[in-house]
Amino acid sequence: MAKKLLEVKNLKQYFGASNNPIKAVDGISFDIYEGETLGLVGESGCGKSTTGRSIIRLYDITDGEILFNGKNIHASKSRKEMKAFNRDMQMIFQDPYASLNPRMTAGEIISEGFDIHGLYKDKKERQERIAELLEAVGLNREHANRYAHEFSGGQRQRIGIARALSLNPSFIIADEPISALDVSIQAQVVNLLKKLQKERNLTYLFIAHDLSMVKYISDRIAVMYRGKVVELGTSDEIYHHPIHPYTKSLLSAVPLPDPLTERIRQRIPYVHEESDNTATLHEVKPGHFVYGTESQITKWNK
Amino acid sequence: MRKKLLEVNNLKINFKTYAGIVQAVRGVNFDLYEGETLAIVGESGSGKSVTSNAIMKLIPQPPGIYAEGQILFDGKDIVPLTEKEMSKVRGNDIAMIFQDPMTALNPTMRVGKQITEVILKHKKVSSADAKARALKLLELVGIPMPEKRFRQYPHEFSGGMRQRVVIAIALAADPKLLIADEPTTALDVTIQAQILELMKDIQKKRNTSIIFITHDLGVVANVADRVAVMYAGQIVEYGTVNDIFYNPKHPYTWGLLGSMPDLKNDVKEALRTIPGSPPDLTQPPKGDAFAPRNEFALAIDYEMEPPMFQVSDTHFAKTWLLHPDAPKVEVPESISRRIEGYLKEAHENG
C-alpha cells in the first residue's frame, strides 16, 4: 500500500463576512497517495481551485486540517520549517501568459527559487541546473536567456513546469494547466507531466473542468459540487459506474469525437437535492465514496 | 435538392504588418447548404476565425486585404460591397455569435434593449412589436421569466444565460446564416451541452445554416454535418462528419484525433502529439505547409504543394499520400483501433 502523502480532513474555506460567509469549500476530506495523480473536477465556482490554493497555503483555512507527510501544514511554524515545506510543494498555474513575469528571462524565472532558498550559489553550477531543467521539460538551454513573450503558449507552460520542478518538490498542484492551450499542445503537456511523474516519482493534484483529460491523466478522481466532494473513486470506476446524480449529469455532457454516439447523446439534467445534516461520504464499494444521506445513497445505488 | 446558401471560392486574406505580409487565409474553398452545419476546426492561427470574420466582412482594412476570391451569399458576391451595403447584410442575413458572452454584451444597457435595438434597425416594426418579438426570442433561447429578464443588465445573468442572450440577439433579425466562433469554449461542459442543444433546436425550427468554429473535436462530432479541417490558412481535409471521424485521410487530422484521450477504451498509452509548431505565414513554406511536422512526409512535400485529392463524392484531402504513386501509409494503429471500437459499439446499439 502506498504511503499517504497528503491528508485533507474536513477542510473549510469561507470568504466574506463571518455572519454570512461564502462557503467556497465546505468540509471536504480526501487523501492523496505517494506517486499518484488525483484529479479534481467540477464546474466553475465549485471550489476546486480554492481547494488547491488552500492546500498550498495561499489562503488561511477557516477550519479543518491538512497533513502533508503527517505534519499539519497550517499549524504555526518556524521560518525554516516553512521554507522546507515550500520546497516540497509547488504549483503550476492555468494561464501561461499571466503566470510568468514578462520582465524576467526564462532562466531567471526558473532560478528565482534558488535565490530564496540559497541553492546553487556557484554560477556555473546554477547555469547547469537551469539547462537541465529546461531540457527536462523539452526546451533547450539556449532558451534560458529569452523573455516570456518570445515563447508560444505551450512553451510558456513548459517554463511554468520547469519552475515548479526547480526545487525538486515531491507534490505538485496543477490548476487547469492545459485549458488555455490548443488540443495538440495539451497532449504534449499532458505527456510531459506523465513522463516527469514517472522519472521523479511526483504526486499530482490535477485540477480541471475537462473530464476527458482528467480521466486520462488521473488514477483517482474527486468530483466537487458547491464546495463539497460528492464522489471519489478510481478514474475508471467514476467514469464507468458513477453513482451520484451530479457525476452522472457531468459525464453525460462530455462530447466525444464519435459522431454516431453524439447523434444519440442524451444529456442527463441535474436537479440538486438538498441533503440534511446526516449526509456524509459513504463507501459504496472499496475505494468508491459517494456523498449523501443513507436514504439518498440507497436510492442512487439501485 | 437543398439550396446552396454560401459559396466561398479561393478566398485569400492578407494582413500587412511590420514583419511583412501575413497570408492568414491562403485559398479557401467551401460551400454551405440551407439548414446545414459546417464545422471549421484547427489550431490557433490556422485561419479559422479570419475566414469567418471575412464572411461577416469584419476584417479591418487596413491592415487586412481581401487579396483574392469570392464569397457568394445567395449567389451574390459580398466581397465588393461597401460598408453601408454590408451593414444591411450583417444581422439581417448573416449574424455572429462570439466566444465570450461577457464582452459581446454591453454592460450598461438592459438586455431587452440590446435585442430590440437589432430588431428596430433591421425590421420595419413599432417598438411595441419589437418588444413582443424580443420576449419571444428570450423564450426561444430558453430564458425563464422573459418579462423580468428583459429589464435586467448582463451582470445579473450567469455565463450560460448570457450566451443565450447573445444567441437571441444574433437571431433577432431572422438571419439565414449563423456564424458561431467558439461559442461554448468559455462555458462549463454541462452548460455547453445545453447551448449546443439549443442551437440544434433553433436550426431545426428555422432551417438556419450554421458555421461552427471550434478546436474541440467532441463538439464537432456533436453539431456538424460537414467538417473542414484548417491548417496554416488552408483547408487540408473536408468531408461529412463521418468521413472525417471514421475515415480520416490527412496526417494533420490524424494528429488532432490522436491528441484526444480515448475515453471509451481505457487506453493509458501516451497521447499522439503533433511535434513542432505551425509555420510563419509571412513566408509560407514551399510545398506542403504541414510537412515539417508530418512524420509521414514524402520528398515531394518539401517541393510542391499537394492538390485536393478526392476520396469520395463528399470527402477531399490535401495530401500527397493520396496520390496513386505514393507509398501506402495507413492510419496510425492507435486511431484505427479507436475508430473500430466506436463503429462496433454503434453497430451493437443498432
From TrEMBL, chain A:
Keywords: ATP-binding, Nucleotide-binding, Transport
Record keyword Transport present: yes
Domain ABC transporter: start-end pairs: 6-251
Domain of life (superkingdom): Bacteria
Family matches, as InterPro entries: AAA+_ATPase, ABC_transp_ATP-bind, ABC_transporter-like_ATP-bd, ABC_transporter-like_CS, Oligopep_ABC_C, P-loop_NTPase
Family: Belongs to the ABC transporter superfamily.
GO BP annotations listed: peptide transport; transmembrane transport
A GO molecular-function descriptor: ATP hydrolysis activity
PROSITE patterns the record matches: ABC_TRANSPORTER_1, ABC_TRANSPORTER_2
Name the record gives this protein: Oligopeptide transport system ATP-binding protein
Annotated Gene3D superfamilies: P-loop containing nucleotide triphosphate hydrolases
From TrEMBL, chain B:
GO terms for MF: ATP binding; ATP hydrolysis activity
Major site of localization recorded for this protein: membrane
Keyword terms, alphabetized: ATP-binding, Cell membrane, Membrane, Nucleotide-binding, Transport
Domain ABC transporter: 6-257
Entry coiled-coil feature ranges: none
UniProt cross-references to SUPFAM superfamilies, sorted A to Z: P-loop containing nucleoside triphosphate hydrolases
Pfam families noted in UniProt: ABC_tran, oligo_HPY
Keyword Secreted recorded: no
Membrane topology: Peripheral membrane protein
Gene Ontology, cellular component aspect: plasma membrane
GO BP, sorted A to Z: peptide transport
Cell compartment(s), UniProt: Cell membrane
Family: Belongs to the ABC transporter superfamily.
Protein name in the entry: Oligopeptide transport system ATP-binding protein
Organism: Ureibacillus xyleni
Upper lineage: Bacteria, Bacillati, Bacillota, Bacilli, Bacillales
